[in-house]
Design brief:
Blueprint lengths: L21 E6 L4 E6 L5 E4 L2 E4 L11 E7 L2 E7 L11 H9 L17 H9 L4 H10 L9 H15 L2 E5 L3 H11 L9 H10 L7 E6 L4 H10 L4 E6 L17 H4 L2 E5 H18 L28 H6 L20 E2 L2 H10 L3 E5 L5 H8 L8 E6 L2 H13 L3 E7 L6 E2 L6 E2 L9 E7 L5
């Protein structure tokens, strides 16, 4: 819903890139993933070549680019990929030919290729494209024709990635961002997998016009996912114990417009708890028969977490998966929109009277039960909640305490399970390398308890 929002007068089509927007560049079908902010001076290093990102501005998301050699140096040229590599041949011809040959007689002794490196460099100096070099390598290979059709395709793709790299322009949204960080730096998002993130949103019943309370210690991914689903309606309140808010760098990659940015607010947990504790006596005196949640007065949050600004440890990491801020410009249509401002008092007063409609917690570094018993009174009655953790025991302890205190119903701990499949002609099977662990989720519904 958020991708259909108009980003201002200068951006008429949100499906097309603009100057200052964040993009996800997929190089060679996932071999390298780079977050970058488009501008006239931004550059991307592909192999040993520095290419300007200027040609990407104004192109629709999903476009393909490849490196070409021009008079002023290498540049990214847009092209339409063909299906020759995917559709190998007709099934009948493929099976009949493969029956007559196999790879048993092939010996990898580095003597099959007659095209030398000097010859390849000479072709480059003469202006040969990457595809022409790949075809020359195939023509000068003594064993290419002896290979099976599938081996020929693998050989072609391997050479293409080296001499004719392909760049896919992807739009950064919840799935693409989560998959990119999980592949490169899973610790930054708490090993949060995409299917687990979907279950968190579903179990917390995140929908339009909801007021969602979030404890996000996964870099802002959870906050951005909730805001994207709300689509400019309701509010996302990112709360935190202590005095320092958690970083939300990932949420700024979503290209949210001003309408959605205004719906993402921050508030310290102490301010929210203070408002609830001061209003409880008034509400109980006016409604003697109403139910209220037990809250401990004069108790502060027992655990505080010092936040670190999540930065990349080396230049190699920064070149692979970062937001390019050196050669970037701010997005003009949403210059006034600031993501994560402090929640205004009138909104806090509304939450104080009505409570939050749902709660999502992804804070692996905090004690789960200590955090939940402080935050649970902020929810309205019958509000769902979902808690993510990498390990089972903290959630089991929290579930037991909620059952003993009769604070929630419908409690269950779920372990997401996901299997990826490779889908290719005559080669459909589960992927050889998969992420076998998706963490655990504790979900339930808060109920009203009598004092």
């Amino acid at each position: 819903m958020s991708e259909n929002k108009v980003h201002g007068d200068a951006v008429e089509n949100p499906r097309v890139t603009w100057d200052g927007c964040s993009v996800l560049l997929d190089i060679n079908d996932g071999d390298r993933l780079v977050f970058s902010r488009l501008s006239g001076g931004a550059k991307l290093k592909i192999g040993n070549k520095n290419c300007s990102l200027q040609p990407l501005i104004g192109c629709p998301f999903g476009s393909f680019f490849r490196v070409e050699n021009g008079e002023d140096g290498p540049y990214l040229s847009r092209y339409t990929p063909s299906n020759e590599g995917n559709s190998v041949q007709e099934q009948g011809d493929c099976q009949s030919k493969d029956k007559l040959k196999d790879n048993r007689a092939l010996v990898d002794n580095n003597k099959a290729q007659s095209l030398t490196g000097d010859a390849i460099n000479e072709m480059r100096r003469q202006g040969a494209t990457g595809n022409e070099i790949v075809e020359a390598l195939i023509a000068n290979s003594a064993t290419f024709e002896k290979k099976t059709v599938f081996s020929q395709e693998k050989y072609r793709l391997k050479k293409q990635k080296k001499y004719a790299p392909i760049v896919l322009l992807r739009r950064p949204f919840t799935r693409s961002i989560c998959e990119a960080y999980l592949k490169k730096y899973p610790v930054r998002i708490g090993l949060l997998r995409m299917d687990t993130l979907c279950l968190l949103l579903a179990m917390a019943n995140v929908s339009a016009n909801s007021d969602v309370l979030v404890v996000d210690m996964v870099g802002g991914l959870l906050t951005g996912a909730v805001a994207e689903r709300l689509g400019g309606t309701g509010y996302v309140c990112n709360t935190y114990p202590g005095g320092s808010p958690y970083p939300m760098d990932i949420a700024r990659i979503f290209n949210f417009g001003e309408a959605i940015c205004k719906r993402i607010v921050r508030s310290p947990l102490t301010d929210l708890l203070l408002s609830v504790q001061t209003e409880k006596p008034k509400l109980s005196s006016q409604n003697g028969d109403s139910c209220s949640m037990e809250t401990e007065s004069n108790e502060q949050i027992s655990s505080t977490v010092g936040t670190e600004e999540v930065t990349l440890a080396s230049e190699n990491m920064a070149s692979d998966l970062t937001v390019d801020t050196i050669n970037s410009v701010e997005r003009k249509p949403s210059k006034s929109a600031k993501l994560g401002e402090k929640a205004p008092h009138d909104i806090i007063s509304m939450w104080k009277e009505n409570g939050f409609s749902s709660l999502i917690i992804a804070a692996p570094e905090l004690d789960t039960w200590s955090l939940v018993k402080e935050i649970l009174p902020l929810l309205s009655n019958s509000a769902p909640f979902a808690i993510y953790h990498q390990y089972l025991q903290p959630l089991a302890t929290c579930m037991h305490n909620l059952q003993v205190g009769k604070l929630a119903v419908g409690l269950q701990i779920s372990e997401p399970w996901l299997r990826e499949y490779q889908v290719l002609p005559s080669r459909t099977h589960p992927c050889m390398q998969m992420n076998g662990f998706g963490g655990y989720i504790l979900s339930g519904t808060k109920i009203c308890t009598n004092n």
